[in-house]
Amino acid sequence: MMYTAILPAAGSGTRMKANKNKLLLELGGKPVFIHTLEVFEADPACRSIWLAVKPEEQRIMEEEIKRFGLKKVYGLTGGGKERQDSVRACLEAIPACEVVLVHDAARPFIRQGTIRRLAETAAQEGAAIAAVKVKDTIKKAENGLVSETVDRDSLWMIQTPQAFRYSLLLEATRSANEDGFLGTDESMLTERLGYPVRIVESSYENIKITTPDDLIYGKAILEQRRQ
Ligand code: CTP
Ligand code: MG
User: Fold this and answer.
1) For residue 19, what are the CA distances in angstroms to 6, 11, 61, 168, 218?
2) Which domains are seen in the chain, by residue range?
3) Which of 43, 111, 140, 208: CA 20 to 30 A from 2?
4) What is the pLDDT of residue 75?
């Protein structure tokens, strides 16, 4: 199933505590976001890539895209205050298509196989999101005292990519914007309209580079893949 990719890359990376956007930090000889872009560049099912960037970082990102010979980045749109605004800006800019797939530029270890399953499931069912099972025991606590142990079997840790029929995500995004609803992922926007969302099991390797220790895990993943 052919899809169009939207990659939000307009964050600040505050939790990384670097002196620049974490996406521009080097990991195994390339900026983090270049690793992510390369996965989509290599996927024949990816029609084009749209990147949400900060206006002040547009030039440096364009230079890196050129330096690494990437050809599928079709458009760079200005990012918004919140991640949801950045995704909305791209969604409003892309040409109509059947399936759109949103993926954090900060998740460089996504596999083509997962992307493919998500795009196909979204085409059939409307919405599909990458997730992994919760590994630890989860408890609720109030004022430091445990109030409940939650049944782990039904719990998933949600990642990106999240894939949707284009028309569905557009409707949900516009509706959230009109209502002033802010979600932490795209699926929340379609869920609130009552549409079903299918879980697609992904990999624990699909980490989001967020805090400094993620760069250590990231290097280990790269090394293991190079063997
Ligand atoms: N993002 C974006 N626009 C925003 C905020 C985030 O495009 N206004 C992007 C980030 O660049 C990242 C992805 O959304 O690729 C996931 O967000 P997150 O990991 O939270 O990155 P940051 O917001 O940059 O980091 P932090 O929350 O630590 O500041
Ligand atoms: Mg953030």
Assistant:
1) 26, 13, 16, 38, 19
2) 3-226 (3.90.550.10)
3) 208
4) 84
